[in-house]
Design brief:
Helix content is 50%, strand content 13%. By secondary structure, it is of the alpha/beta class. The protein has a single domain, classed as Rossmann fold, CATH 3.40.50. Helix 1 packs across helix 8, helix 2 packs antiparallel against helix 3 and helix 4 crosses helix 7. The longest helix has 25 residues. It binds adenosine-5'-diphosphate (ADP).
Length: 232
């Protein structure tokens, strides 16, 4: 069987990243893809960006007392991501897994820029994070994410709405403005970092089949194994 061609990051595994606004459908698609890949016999490691124990308490305390500036917020998140990267992403990538990552450094690029950090500075902090093999960007209008949130009775989080930035006193208006800023950043990154754009206003099934089709050439010579590992 032909060997798979080496990835730019030089590790035997492949890094498949899912990015986009909250409510854009990333987790739904990442979970479906993970199961499908496993069913086809690939070794899959699934990981998502939830704050690690290392910094979550500090972030929570800082938020509560309003101690964090855009810079300190950004540095704490970078520490959090470095922890996740070294413990959860790098080992399976080295071991030849298909690593399905729900959010990656781009989430920080978008979020920190939307909070006023200089984009080049943020990027320099994340220089340790290699370029993924694929970044699927779930493009969706902000209004759609809001509708999905309301439909699934998810609460809008104070920070997700950027309420701390003083954009508006109204939670929904602030959410729209802040998420619009995030979207602008994602759109910019989509060009500079060659994201694979997925129109996420379509049905779950349509989106999933497009993702699978997109990955077909990459998977053609990729070795199969037997395990799916989840980082929870
Ligand atoms: P994210 O991980 O980007 O925050 P989720 O996958 O959690 O998004 O989806 C957010 C909500 O939208 C969930 O209630 C989910 O069931 C719903 N959803 C996901 N994909 C679609 C879709 N293509 N069309 C309609 N609703 C969707």
């Amino acid at each position: 069987m032909p060997e798979p061609s080496p990835a730019p990051h030089g590790f035997p595994g492949r890094l498949l990243v899912f990015e986009g606004l909250d409510g854009s459908g990333k987790s739904t698609q990442a979970a479906l893809l993970g199961k499908w890949l496993q069913a086809r016999g690939y070794r899959v490691f699934f990981t998502e960006w939830n704050s690690s124990e290392l910094v979550s308490k500090t972030i929570r305390r800082g938020k509560k007392k309003n101690l964090l500036t855009a810079t300190t917020f950004s540095l704490l998140h970078a520490t959090d991501f470095a922890d996740r990267f070294e413990r959860r992403i790098l080992p399976p990538l080295r071991a030849g897994y298909l690593v399905v990552s729900d959010r990656y450094a781009y989430t920080a690029f978008a979020r920190d820029a939307a909070r006023g950090c200089a984009p080049e500075w943020v990027r320099s902090i994340y220089a340790f994070a290699p370029q993924p093999d694929r970044v699927f960007y779930f493009r969706v209008p902000v209004q759609v994410t809001l509708k999905r949130k309301i439909a699934s009775r998810q609460k809008i989080n104070y920070y997700e709405a950027g309420m701390d930035l003083g954009l508006s006193d109204d939670l929904y208006e602030s959410y729209e403005r802040f998420q619009t800023r995030l979207k602008q950043e994602y759109e910019r990154l989509a060009e500079t970092d060659r994201f694979t754009i997925v129109d996420s206003t379509r049905s779950v099934e349509e989106i999933q089949s497009e993702i699978r089709e997109n990955l077909r050439p990459m998977l053609e010579h990729f070795p199969t194994g037997e395990r799916l590992v989840h980082d929870r």
